[in-house]
Sequence to fold (226 residues):
Amino acid sequence: SQQGEEDPQALSIQEGENATMNCSYKTSINNLQWYRQNSGRGLVHLILIRSNEREKHSGRLRVTLDTSKKSSSLLITASRAADTASYFCATDASNTGNQFYFGTGTSLTVIP
Amino acid sequence: DAGVIQSPRHEVTEMGQEVTLRCKPISGHDYLFWYRQTMMRGLELLIYFNNNVPIDDSGMPEDRFSAKMPNASFSTLKIQPSEPRDSAVYFCASRPAGGPKTQYFGPGTRLLVL
Fold:
């Protein structure tokens, strides 16, 4: 499977702490995106990092990409209860046309 | 824009019945995707369309599943006959041509087959 694998599967932290989740994938990619899914809702795009980038920031989000290890990490700083959600990475693989491959997701719980 | 619209939001049906899920993509988006999400299998791509034409349906689990896109603003996913193992949340997503391929998801249809 070309799916990404997120790690950990579940993460529980206190409000104000940082949350880090990781994604590993298998093939060469054009870019990698992170999505959030609140309970009972659809996925929402958070941030994109291209294959020639190593780090990207957006507000409290920081994404890193290591193409040599085929891995990415998403860091949420100063977490809030509203960050409670599942987080998915999605890879735009270089040789698969228009398809995305979503990972298995990390379920984040931020305790107020 | 209202975003991707899906209907119904919830569907409860009995095994053997026909189920039709509907999706209206964001206006101007050339690609439409149908996904299924379950706890066991995660998010699975079932089929996607480009300019109303099905491009890849390799994710459609069985012949009981079919999808159509008669025009740029409407798509259906049909299950006939439905089975309890089809119970899942079905998402529709769309995106414009070109660019980074960011997909915009609808709110999903939660299907329960009894």
Remarks:
- The first strand of chain A starts at residue 5 and ends at 7.
- The two ends of chain A are 37 Å apart (CA to CA).
